[in-house]
Structure formats: structure tokens, C-alpha cells
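Budget justification, computational time. The allocation requested in the original proposal was used primarily to generate C-alpha cells for proteins on the priority list. As evidence of use, we reproduce two of the resulting records. The first is shown immediately below.
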Amino acid sequence: MVDFEGRRCYKLRIVRNAGQPDEEFYDVETGLLAGSVILRESPMGAVKATNVLSDYKPFGGVRLATRGVQRQSGVEQVITILTVEHDTVPATAFDPPAEIRTMLQKPAK
């Protein structure tokens, strides 16, 4: 266990398919993702970014972080989520256009 942003966390080292190792931190008390530290190569050299997630709230039965803080190259960006909607797209939005429906109805030769 380690301290991450003032929280006791489990630290995991994850190696992505592209080969980059990242660190993820999971809150010991809740088991929820507390954040991550990533290091990526850029034209200006290696760039480290720290992401901190907090203020988890339930939305449609799914608990999501409503506050995210990213620190990179001396800049801090804060994202606050107020609402989340699930399944608001009508099923008809996935209907193919008339031309495609016609093609789908024709028997294959």
C-alpha cells in the first residue's frame, strides 16, 4: 500500500499493449480507482501526467467519479461532472437509411 494524493491505495503497475508502463492507484477503503500516473514520450521528451479521481456518485446504477484533476507540465485541469444520462438515444437512431434497408431486403445472387 502507498499514499496517493492523501489516500491509502493499492498501487498497480500496468503495461499497455504498446509497451508503456502506467501506475494505477485503487483506494483501500472503497476499492475505487483513485487515479493514475502515466509517462509518455513526446517530441519534447518524456511527459508525466497525474490523474486524480474523486467524488464518486451513482448514475443509473453505475458509480462514477464526478471530479477529475489532471496535472501535467505544471498545468492543472479540473473536470467536474454534474449529470450523466444512460440510454437516452432512441432505438430508431440505429435504423439504417432507406437505401441500405432496400439493399438488405434484396435476395443475394
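The second record produced under the same allocation is shown here.
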Amino acid sequence: MVDPTSGLMRGLGNQNRNQYRGPGYFNTDLSVLKSFRVREGMSLSLGAQFFNLFNHPNFAAPVSDIESPFFGQITNMVSVPTSILGSFLGGDASPRLIQLHGEIRF
């Protein structure tokens, strides 16, 4: 909406709420565990955990600065929130992670 006295933009005009949306976020984690009874009072558990199982990239919102030469373009990825290493790696280095573990209970 343009202000008639100054000619400057004053708001978004006739835009609907949530009219523009960024890309969605998709992440799949999987954990598999199997317990075996070794003898009475003792068990062995073996398992694996998979983080970002399908290795799917998640893109950030498009650049919203109208003066930027990259306006409207997606220039980076978002960090994966669930991983054994945390989210400090950054979106471009968020690989599929596989963790194997074993446990003896007595």
C-alpha cells in the first residue's frame, strides 16, 4: 500500500495472512533395539540409531531483503535439530548418522 502524501510503501496492501510460505522441514530418525536373554538376571541388548535416515536436505526461507541481489532465492540450508552431535554442524554438513550400541544388563 502506497502512502498518497509521501509516495512510500506503508504495509503490504491486500496480502492474505500466511500467503507466502517457505519450504517445509522433513526429517526421519529411526531406532532399532533387540534384547536377548542370556540367562536368568542377565540380558544383552544390541541396537542401532539412524539420524536423518533418508539424508533429505532441508532448505531455509528465501532471502527477504528486497535490496539483496538474491531476493526471493533460497541460498542456504537449515541445521538438523535432532542428532547425536547437536545442531552446531550447520545445514550443509548435516549428514546421515548411524550409531551402533550394545548393552549388557545384570
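A brief technical remark on that second record: The first strand starts at residue 30 and ends at 39.
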